[in-house]
């Protein structure tokens, strides 16, 4: 059984409006404890953009008539690099690699932690997480954001939307569609979903602010969240 887990760490919990230092302190402590219990355990942390991405993308749309999605993507990608460098610095003693901004580059991954951020336009860091899982033979991605479960529809727009405990890839992709739109808030990127389905990966979506719940997932215990790909 693989001891590698990929954590897609949403920018919404790293920097919801500003950097959430309390969360990062507790996350750092809990993850170190998990890794210290078994030196063969490995974790890839892929960082999202959060507030910096949204703020700068919104500013660009207000200022410019340029509708090129690639431009907005690059702004968001640079925000993921900022968050990624912070997380990389926190775990610098547990990683021998620089911040990964290209999942196809030369990566040693000889230590227990690998920290990554956005790569290029056309998808979110969820897709980077899938690519890295694929590269290092990981089959589980824990997608940590500020939502506890995936819903049948956006509950902010549809009052009849209900939470989902588990769902197959086909039905999940019916919910999120097949098109990537920069800045759109989806539980898991449509491009990432397509590849994850093809690779028979399992994705667990959960509220990353609940660190005890994240540790329960890592340790194979009962948890709150949505399992995609069962």
Describe the structure.
The chain has 230 residues and is α/β, with parallel strands linked by helices. It has a single domain (4-228), classed as 3-Layer(aba) Sandwich (Carbamate kinase), CATH 3.40.1160.10. The chain has 8 helices and 9 strands. It has helices at residues 11-14, 21-36, 50-63, 69-90, 125-135, 169-176, 190-198, 211-218, and strands spanning 4-9, 42-47, 113-116, 140-145, 150-151, 163-164, 166-167, 202-207, 226-228. The protein has a 7-stranded mixed beta sheet with strand order 3-2-1-4-8-9-7, with helices on both faces. Strands 5-6 form a two-stranded antiparallel ribbon. Helix 2 runs parallel beside helix 8, helix 5 (125-135) packs parallel to helix 7 (190-198) and helix 6 packs antiparallel against helix 7. The chain is globular, with a radius of gyration of 17 Å. It starts with a strand and ends with a strand. The mean pLDDT is 92.
Q: What features would you highlight for this structure?
A:
globular, Carbamate kinase, two-stranded antiparallel ribbon, 230 residues
């Amino acid at each position: 059984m693989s001891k590698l887990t990929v954590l897609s760490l949403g920018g919404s919990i790293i920097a919801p409006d500003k950097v959430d230092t309390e969360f990062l302190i507790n996350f750092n402590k809990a993850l170190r404890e998990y890794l210290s219990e078994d030196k063969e355990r490995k974790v890839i942390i892929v960082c999202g953009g959060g507030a910096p991405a949204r703020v700068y993308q919104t500013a660009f749309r207000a200022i410019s008539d340029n509708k090129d999605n690639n431009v907005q993507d690059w702004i968001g990608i640079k925000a993921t690099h900022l968050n990624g460098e912070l997380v990389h610095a926190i775990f610098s003693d547990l990683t021998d690699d620089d911040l990964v901004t290209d999942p196809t580059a030369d990566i040693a991954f000889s230590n227990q932690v690998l920290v990554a951020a956005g790569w290029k336009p056309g998808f979110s860091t969820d897709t980077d997480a899938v690519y890295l899982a694929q590269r290092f033979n990981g089959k589980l991605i824990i997608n940590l954001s500020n939502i506890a479960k995936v819903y049948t529809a956006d509950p902010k727009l549809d009052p009849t939307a209900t939470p989902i405990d588990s769902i197959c890839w086909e039905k999940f992709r019916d919910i999120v569609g097949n098109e990537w739109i920069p800045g759109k808030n989806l539980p898991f990127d449509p491009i990432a979903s397509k590849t994850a389905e093809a690779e028979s990966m399992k994705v667990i979506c959960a509220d990353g602010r609940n660190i005890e719940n994240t540790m329960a997932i890592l340790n194979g215990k009962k948890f709150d969240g949505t399992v995609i790909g069962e």
